[in-house]
Design goal:
Blueprint: E1 21-31, E2 37-48, E3 53-57, H1 64-71, E4 79-84, E5 87-88, H2 97-102, E6 104-108, H3 119-128, H4 135-147, H5 163-175, E7 181-185, H6 193-208, E8 212-216, H7 220-225, E9 229-234, E10 237-241
Parallel strand pairs: 3-8, 3-9, 6-7, 7-8
Antiparallel strand pairs: 1-2, 1-4, 4-5, 9-10
Helix pairs in contact: 3-4, 3-5, 4-5, 5-6
Amino acid sequence: MAPLATENAGSRPPAVPVPLIELTNVTVSYPLPGGGRRTVFENLSLKLARGEMAYLVGPTGCGKTTLLRLLYMDLRPDYGVVRVGDYRSDTINDEEIPYLRRALGIVFQDFQLLPDRDAFDNVAFALYATGKRGGAVRSRAIQVLGRVGLSHKRGRHPHELSGGEQQRVVVARAIANDPWVLLADEPTGNLDPSVSNSVLELLLSLHRQGMTFLMATHDYRLVKKYPARTLAFMQGQLVDVDPATL
């Protein structure tokens, strides 16, 4: 049995956990049609610990989606560094980006399901993309559809499913490869309030199982009903706010 640590047991300070997600002095801008550039945010910094949950809030156009795109490296910053696990925006190459994205589950507002494939095949597609084949794909797809309460509808196509059910398929697809980070971009934006509640409760259950969870939303009702760390865009910076004050 290892001895218990004592106050004078060595002079080295305890190790500080490294954040799973970290943005350091990040600036992003877009070119304007008439010339010049529009700055979305400047010198923005953020740290998110492994297993943490946070909301991103703010008005349309403030940078919520841009920040998520930085994390799955669909976008690179003008300045500064984005780090997700061991991947860094200033050193990652194009061949490494698919490996980063396999570690991320991404839930979009507009579903982005394949209309000509049923729920099972939409989930299986994400597994095939990572090289899985045969029985491993079938068992995993059925398993994750069961986790979102849709195993009985695995043969239905998107147009045969309600909006809430389609979003559950999206969640199943996002977690099919057992990611360690779940990113959600306005996942309840197209859903009725009662359906929004059930979808967010599903996402929260995944977070409670240990998944790091970052969600961009303009639905302050949900943020207040299911409070967690809340980051608001204010004058191009992220500020921790009390969700009760929204």
